[in-house]
Amino acid sequence: MGFPDRARSGSPGRPSCVPGAFARIGPRGDGARRYRSGSGDICADEGNHWDVTYYNCGGC
pTM for the full model? Predict the structure, then answer.
């Protein structure tokens, strides 16, 4: 199970889900483009912010 969050592009302390840095995967049901990080986290580009689902909490 992941931990959903919302992040605006460029917000401090949030992942930079930049196309090209992460692997692009299929679109979400609402059409948002999705990307997967090397650790398995999923980022969805909603235009004015990113929805991020953390699957790796970094050792919590």
Answer: 0.66
